Amino acid sequence: METKIDKPVFTGTDTYVLDPELAKIVNASIALEMPLLLKGEPGTGKTLLAYAIAEDLGMPLVVLNVKSSMKAVDALYQYDTLTRLNDSRFGDSKRDVSNIEDYIKMGKIGQAFTSDRRTVLLIDEIDKADSDFQDDLLDVLDQMSFDIIEIDKTIKARHRPIIIITSNSKKDLSDPFLGRCIFHHIAFPDPDMMRKIVNAHFPDIGEDIAGACIKAFYALRDIKGVEKKPATRELINWIRILLMDPDFDPEHLMKGDIPYLGVLFKKSNDYRLAQKYVSQA
Amino acid sequence: MFVDFFYILKDQGIPVSPTGFLSLQEALAKGLITSLDDLYTLARAVMIKSEKYFDMYDRVFAHYFKGAELKGPLIEEIDRAIKAMLEEWLSSPKAMADFLGMDENELKKMTPQELEEYFRKRLEEQTERHDGGNRWIGTGGTSPVGHSGFHPGGMRVGGVSMGHSAIKVALERRYKDYTKDNHLGPAQISEALRQLRNMIPAGPKDQVNIRETIYQTMKNAGEIEIVFERSLRDKLKVILMIDNGGWSMDPYIEIVQILFNHASNQFKDLKTFYFHNTIYNKVWEDPTRYHKPFYVDDFARLDPETRLIIVGDASMAPYELMSQHGSIAYNSPQTQPSIKRLEFLAKTFRHNVWLNPRKAHTWPHTETVEIIREVFPMFELTLDGLEKAVAHLMQK
Q1: B362-383 pLDDT tens trace
Q2: Residues of chain B with pLDDT under 50
Q3: What domains appear along chain B, each with residue ranges and CATH number?
Q4: How far A244 CA sits from the closest chain B CA (Å)?
Q5: Min CA distance, B204 vs chain A (Å)?
Q6: Are A275 and A218 in contact (CB under 8 A)?
Q7: How many C-beta atoms surround the C-beta of residue A92 within 10 A?
Q8: Is a pLDDT exceeding 90 seen at residue A208?
Q9: Are strands B307-311 and B352-356 parallel, antiparallel or unpaired?
Q10: ipTM of predicted assembly, 2 dp
Q11: Which of A86, A176, B228, B333 has its Cα between 20 and 30 A from that of A186?
């Protein structure tokens, strides 16, 4: 394979352990200039991937946190009519009331398009908004441009951003949208991979502690009837707390004495199930 | 390149599009694919757009590039049978051992893997199926044995480890669990229920209506006149009736529980009632069906725009539904057969659905399901069914 110098290649960062399969997909998404759509259980590092790519490639990251009530145009730009109305009445600002452009503010996608440098654009949890939102974004992401209707101006992306889109729920996005994306589903890491992830976050952690924690963690994930299983994020937080506790001893974990269950299980019912499991062990 | 591969994927029911195929060609042209591993990963990333189809992709990939047999329905059946056998074995090891003509203790010595393998062998002998080349089946890390953790050894099956060849990875069938239909978890339920709402302006006037503000300001000769209005709130009323009695609903407790939890989070105005098998003159507000009865006639006093969702398997003896004296509970004299009560409810609340946790293809086997379907539109309690039910409830 011919390597071109101007093509960025993503190799992972110190704290983000990159699965080789995912690495290929990220690089293909950059090379094919297609957005990368990531799905997977919450807490498997979908959002973190975008941060890691930005850090690794030294590009600024623009995050669009999608909200349920969001319209596509909100992500592109905003026309601040109220300020303009206010200025026209009181006229005490430096803005020029007759120039609408003074009242146009760029949304997150607008910012990514107008940035001087190439950016990584993260569209987080796109499934939160309704399907109109996705359909409206389609053309924008396809053409890499959008119109500001109020001033009849077209904003074109100066540099094509690297686009990462995450979706939490397993609900499918619309077909045309999927057609334009590269898709990957991040499976929950297996214990070996998890060990690497833990080591990346806690370089000084002892083998025995890491092993005991991971073993206990996977056993807890297998408790039947739990609605929200603890994920990587919970494990990392849990280990952080265990390490701060002066009384913590990995031996106890092995014996089934598991402290700080509340860090791992956040629904009251799940917490009860976990407690029951621990007291039986 | 790989045109056949594309068509096999399509024939197997995976929604692959020409666009995706062209993207694959582009990836090939750009030199992104230099090995079979790359092909496996990237062809999937550009062509398969849902993890539901990853498992099928794995199977097609293994078949196409190695000629591994495509797994037909027979083997699927064997998989199911093995699962059933293992469950049986868990609940009564002795009965299972007797059935197989084996010593219970001998079976107990086996690891779960051996046990599964053994069951499979027996089943395959039974169906007189040539089992050559199928050794790999069931090693996919998704076997029911590994995760229930019942075995004293506490082992876990499978797991992903990279560095395998693409075909081996494909053969691992890591995505078996994500296959269509069998996955209705909390996330999907709340997603499906989210569509069910009725937005009505309510609460304090705290939102600026920009259009109206500008209009009024102009009318006011530029003197600013800000117009406030109420924000939209969800005012949907929902009644959820759950069949929580009888062994026939037992297998579905977990899924109904999840549905109930999410419904209570989702709907501000939710009333839940419980019944056993079918509805007679009253339902209960408490799950024990003892303390707080609610008379069915009283539903006539509630808002007729309320959405009625009934969850139950609708399976019972026909007389329970059709006869005036059908109630199986002692001490509950009835004036009307249950079917009349159901018809009354369906008439009172014109937005109504019946969610049935049993699979739709089994419905025609039960007479009462068919009768109730004539009264209520019935949907499977799956993601698909739930979405259809919600769409039905939202019709004008």
Answers
A1: 888 888 888 999 999 999 887 7
A2: 73, 127-164, 181-182
A3: 3-66 (no CATH), 73-165 (no CATH), 201-233 (no CATH), 236-393 (3.40.50)
A4: 30
A5: 19
A6: no
A7: 7
A8: no
A9: parallel
A10: 0.78
A11: A176
